[in-house]
Amino acid sequence: MGTVIDSHFLGLTAIVTVGYQLLFFIVTALLKFDKVTDFAGSTNFVLIAILTLVLKGTWHFRQVVLTLLVVIWGLRLGVFLLMRILQWGEDRRFDEMRSNFGKLAIFWIFQAVWVWTVSLPVTVVNSSNRNPSIQAADITGWIMWSSGFIAEATADQQKLVFKNSPENRGKWCDVGLWKYSRHPNYFGEILLWWGIFVASIPVLEGAEWLVILGPIFLTLLLLFISGIPLLEESADKKFGNVAGYRHYKRATSPLILLPPVLYDNLPSWFKTTFLFELPLYNRSLPQEGLNW
């Protein structure tokens, strides 16, 4: 069908994203109902991917595959998070926002920026007329996505089962993939979106390479802002004085899946420089005996 607003659908996807998030923001603000927040974010990715694929109408194999990967990821995560919050009954992230319109609005604006920015690779691929043959970058990207998707979905399910078990009440999750990473779900999410970018490389030309801002933005977001720092702070406040937790934190990689026996024996400078063991992850941890 061709161009809508601009040849890369950037304006269109921005308008659609803002409108979609605004709809859910109104529901949240008026009804004080925040259980659809994560669902709104995840399904927005699905909407953008399908919309750009259909509007362009070229249906190149690469476009269809990347769209399908985004749809699978978005629906899986959206439904999982919706079912989880309906089961748990509340989202503590919004305890301070429900009665603060300004903070709530900022959150939804940021979510719109997140969706639009991270979607850039699939948006640009779906808008392109170029259709080079399948290359090593495509295969590599698909493998990265598959590995990341399996890691994220597995970690989510393992933690849900752990948290739902009465015998684990008041404990930190250290089973399954959580033995090898303190945040294996985030590792999976970062890996799969870098996979989407890598699979888009054969199509990119000139300024289109700026779509790399998508996975960069996601990585920085999870490493420094709304992902790992918040969860580390919460866990440290709950378990920071428990010797077993301190050992788990010292011996377990914050992101990349690694055997604890290997990670525990690496020098601290190496962990910080190459494995994202950042000082801000320990800011709420009691400092007695802290030596990593």
How is this fold's topology laid out?
Layout: H1 10-31, H2 37-56, H3 61-88, H4 101-118, H5 120-127, H6 136-164, H7 184-200, H8 213-225, H9 228-239, H10 243-251, H11 260-264, H12 268-274
Helix pairs in contact: 1-2, 1-4, 2-3, 2-4, 2-5, 3-6, 4-8, 6-7, 7-8
Task: Please explain how this structure is put together.
The chain has 292 residues and is an all-alpha fold. It has two domains: 10-220, no CATH class; 232-292, no CATH class. The mean pLDDT is 93. It has helices spanning 10-31, 37-56, 61-88, 101-118, 120-127, 136-164, 184-200, 213-225, 228-239, 243-251, 260-264, 268-274. Helix content is 64%, strand content 0%. The longest helix has 29 residues, at 136-164. The protein is globular. It is built from twelve helices and no strands. One of its GO terms (cellular component) is membrane. InterPro entries: UstE-like. It holds the Pfam family DUF1295. The chain crosses the membrane at residues 12-33, 39-57, 64-85, 105-125, 186-204, 210-231. Keywords: Membrane, Transmembrane, Transmembrane helix.
